[in-house]
Amino acid sequence: MSRPVLTVENFGVDYLVDPVVHAVRDVSFTLRRGEILGLAGESGCGKSTLAYGIVRLLKPPAVITSGRALFHDARPDASPSAASPSSASRPPAASPPASPSSASSALVSPSSASSAPASPSPASPLPASRDVDWGELSAEELRAARWDRISMVFQGAMNSLNPVVSIRDQFEDVFVTHRPRMSRDERRRRCGDLLERVGVDRTRLRSYPHELSGGMRQRVMIAMAMALEPQIMIMDEPTTALDVVVQRDILREISRLRDELGFAVILITHDLPLLLEISDRIAVMRHGEIVELGDAEQIYRTPRHQYTRKLLASFPSLTGTRGAFVRGAVPGGAVSGGVVPGGAVPGGVVPGGAVSGDAPVDAS
Ligand SMILES: Nc1ncnc2c1ncn2[C@@H]1O[C@H](COP(=O)(O)OP(=O)(O)OP(=O)(O)O)[C@@H](O)[C@H]1O
Description:
The chain is α/β, with parallel strands linked by helices.
């Protein structure tokens, strides 16, 4: 089992509206280095609030009421270097505007973070410590650390590309801002390499955002989020605006890149079958709490919590008879060919141990 890269302890977030919304309640979990942790749960259960809270990207009326997110830095001495201000564009999505460092007030709303104004360049390095309490960082340290240590891809992030700036200039700006000592040639080479990693031809660097399809733009965003080799990528429905086939292609691509590059991912998507396919573990949230956390295989085969069973049963494709993808053989199990979200499970076993064709589990 790999070492943790993030430990979230007793995390709580309220929205101070009337009545108060307890959006995240006493959430604790560990993200292991290099793993994909899927966050599942119905709309409004607190997934985004948790994700944004971890990296302090919320703003009032959200208030972090308890807990902390401890980042275990693998390269505490390689702090982001100071940089000169940059003007061509901003690192989209992952770099929020200047903000106070209060541990208790959240800073940038999910909806506005991806369209944040140009961010000042990071001015100070992270503390040279292996364990960094994200809530203790100053605004400057947060700006330096986001994107560099933990990057985020938000829903609709592709829309935050500046329409009048070429992909090359926007891309290079990430390096100009965060790696000011990198030579121009090196920057250009890295930008092209990164684009190709996500399946976009490097000649597209010359393009403007409107010349790219939605899928390509989102791939560009993902490439940018990978640019500084973050140790964690938080992806909140990164493909929602795209059609299903493109969504799945991109999410599988993220899984492949994780295999290559070793970053850990917190992935939020409503596509539960795909989440089961590409996640190592899945945390199931309900009413702001994690009600179950386990290996994807276990969550699928032997969900312990009634709500998990209900969630699985709410996907007809998980219990129906169409489609085919195989997660892997199940040792000694009734299922010979592995799990088939999107279709029947060979052997007729469905989530929760029911028999294929059974009525959904009643979680009421
Ligand atoms: N700005 C806000 N003011 C008040 N309540 C809010 C605000 N933003 C979110 N909430 C509430 O907080 C709770 C958690 O919302 P959140 O967006 O985190 O859920 P989610 O699981 O990410 O939902 P979805 O899957 O639809 O994105 C919900 O009850 C939501 O209505």
